[in-house]
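>> Question from a student workshop board

For tomorrow's exercise we were told to take the sequence and the ligand below, predict the bound structure, and bring the output to class. My setup keeps failing. Could a helper post the expected result so I can at least see what it should look like? The ligand is 4UV.
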Amino acid sequence: MVFESPYTPVSIPETDLWSFLFERKSKPFTDSKEIFTDSETGRTYTFGDLRSTSLEFGKGIQKLWNWKRGDVMAFYTPNSIDTPPAMLGLLWAGGVGSPANPLYTEPELTFQLRDSGAKAIVTQLPFIDTARRAAKAVGIPEDRIILIGDAHDPSGHFRHFSTIRNPSFSGRPTALKIDVRKDLAFLVYSSGTTGLPKGVCLTHHNVVSNVLQMSSVDSMYFHPYGGVDGKGDKGLGITPFFHIYGLTCCIMVFIYTGWELISMPRFDLERACQLIEQYKISFSYVPPPVILAFSKHPIVDKYDLTSMRMFHSGAAPLTPELATALWDRLKISVKQGYGLSETAPVATMQLLDEWGKFMGSVGKLLPNMTARLVDPDKGTDVTEVGKPGELWLKGPNIFPGYLNLPENTAATMSPDGYFKTGDIFVVDKYENFTCVDRLKELIKYKGFQVPPAELEGILLGHKDITDACVIGIEDKEQATEVPRAYVVMKPGIPTDAAKAKEIVDWLASLTAPHKKLRGGVHFLSEVPKSASGKLLRRVLRDQVRQAEKA
Ligand code: 4UV
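>> Workshop helper replied:
Here is what the output should look like for this input. Compare the format with yours to find the bug.
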């Protein structure tokens, strides 16, 4: 059975992302509309500023480095209001943006730079050392490390993006005519259903489509003008721009809709409360741990948050209990969405009006999307309401494939053109989708991906470990999963708490903080494997779940 989106289809122009945002025939706001405001400095980009700054940056990199169509630029930076104009300038010049978590260690960043073939890196001063070492490892010259943000390099060694802007250069050469169905806008990294992180190719058409699909739902409720100060609805920018959630839903959607984003460099609960009170913020796109903080922490009581009308939660499951706790405390609606890097990212969304009626659901398919629910064992469609199946998706926002990995791409696509998400869903009679389990191996810590295969690979490099298996464990207190390792030690090596802590600390020194083994290290005499030697993570996961139930 094929599920069709119940929302009115959107018309998607064959336009590249820059032209889609900045050369629209008519838009419901003026060029002087504020779009991005920095929470700490108050610095702002209006729509007109974004257009001119991005254009000048795009011209600048063409003039300076002869930037070519398809050339990748990495963005290794926490949220900054300079990311949007730099990213869009890059796109204007035919380039591709590849965002990376600024807490990545040198090997993690090096992997992404090498795999993506990045030709330059955008970063900020506090992250320069790692950026510099990783750039060196892959042969990116130091003069291609570009700083954004308010801090300039006092030694003048690294250029600031403002000095690259070139207003006079003639313009986009015709050779740069972007093929919107083939040329990439973003190259984001995800482990997909299995293995190590892979480059998820997202075309201009994918991203333009998702901006239109997603905003067609929420722009029913939020507007560029009106409200308490006439300046329209303001969103709180918490979600990282280096994840596809922030990149599409906080950068691109805000430029398209004319909403203003008050952008925080990092999440801090008290600062978030102050900003909501100060700017009379009305909504925010967040992962579930932010909902947890607002629903439980005493500091929230010190602030007037009555302007807030909605949190949209995505990237990890949100329990009905948590949504209810927030509503009971603050009377803020908490609706949910679901998406993946491979869907650019939003695939389903609840209507703000319906969140309380279908709690726990991630809503209905976005416009222009169809889906199937497929029994993973039989490969046939699930036909009964309430029966679980793997969600398969089709629509203009579905990625064309993983970079240079045709076999992985083929494994995630069905012969009839559906993308297999690796997530298990049920659907109700109103076509609300609810995520009930994950078929794939991915672990999510507070919405951030932790690929088990990556941690296992690192653990196998430990001098005392002969085998390893990593799974996700539920941490109800923190409303997240946490990674736990099961390891087999060489004969004669102690298997006590001190050794377990040593391994946790050792791994933490090699990875970004979200990959820390917060679920601990457990010792086994062997890890479960199939006859062909494939790790059976699911067996361990089921054992843990059984033990929890007992
Ligand atoms: O590839 P990724 O890291 O991508 C995301 C994107 C999530 C978004 C983005 C915009 C939204 O508006 C929105 O609502 C959600 O996380 O990880 C994809 C995997 O994350 C899990 C699921 O296992 C995906 O395959 N996931 C994402 N959203 C949910 C979720 C959810 N609401 N409930 C349960 N799991």
